Amino acid sequence: MAMLVLPDVFERTWGLRAEPFWPRATTRVREQAPGFCFMAEVYWDLEWTLQQQGFDYTYDKRLYDRLRDGHVRPIREHFHADHDYQNKMARFLENHDEPRAAATLPAGDARGGGRRSRYLSPGLRFFHRGAARRIAGSGFRRTSFAHRVEPTRSAGCSGSTNACSP
After folding, report:
1. Considering the domain boundaries, does residue 62 fall inside one?
2. What gap in Å lies between CA 37 and CA 30, rounded to an integer?
3. In a domain? residue 44
4. In the prediction, which pLDDT does 80 show?
5. 3-state secondary structure of 164
6. Domain count, the chain
7. Is the CA virtual torsion 98, 145, 83, 3 positive or negative?
8. From CA 154, how far away is CA 147, in angstroms rounded?
9. What pLDDT is attached to residue 11?
10. 29 located within any domain
11. Rounded distance between C-alpha atoms, residue 40 and residue 25, angstroms
12. Cβ–Cβ under 8 Å, residues 75 and 91
């Protein structure tokens, strides 16, 4: 949970002032490993803040919650966000902290609307423990992986290392 070391969060939590950590850390890592991809598990509407501090992708937990709740208007409005922001979101239906999608998504999603919206939306698609098999009928065996497709390039991120490859 990368937002925990943001200066304002750190000060509210511990009562201590902290210098910004992520801009310097992401810059120094990229000096040594230029293709490294940073992906943050982040909450409290701090996704854009971490994207601005050097993260390539941030978890889109807000969309997950909206899909789980099954209210169409907030889901539709979610996709009106700026494309620079949308392209840096890691979209997921399942992760290590959440119940399986089949147990979580509303019964009206039986035809897979929530699953399709996550898979077809901009940004990084993050699959966890067989979710890709259920969506695409593929034979992936990794615990988790992520994939992003852009018009001019493809990149994959390993969930275990968060390293992207062009």
Report:
1. yes
2. 9
3. yes
4. 84
5. strand
6. 1
7. positive
8. 8
9. 96
10. no
11. 13
12. no
Q: Which domain holds residue 83?
A: 36-165
CA distance 88 to 54: 11
Task: Please give the single-letter amino acid code of residue 100.
Answer: R
Burial class of residue 87 in the structure, from the number of CB atoms within 10 Å of its CB (0-12 exposed, 13-18 middle, 19+ buried): middle
Q: Annotate 46-67 with b (16+ C-beta within 10 A) or e (fewer).
A: bbbbbbebbbbbbbbbebbebb
Strands 57-59, 89-92: parallel, antiparallel or unpaired by DSSP?
parallel
Low-confidence ranges of the chain (pLDDT < 70): 93-120, 127-166
In a domain, 128, yes or no: yes
What is the amino acid identity at position 121?
Answer: S
Q: Cα separation of 131 and 94, whole Å? A: 7
Q: Residues 103-140, buried b or exposed e (16+ Cβ, 10 A)? A: eebeeebeeebbbebbbebbbbbbbbbbbbebbeeeee
> Quick one: CA torsion of 143, 49, 123, 31, rounded to 10 degrees?
-70
Place of tokens 């992207």: 164
Coil, helix or strand for 88? coil
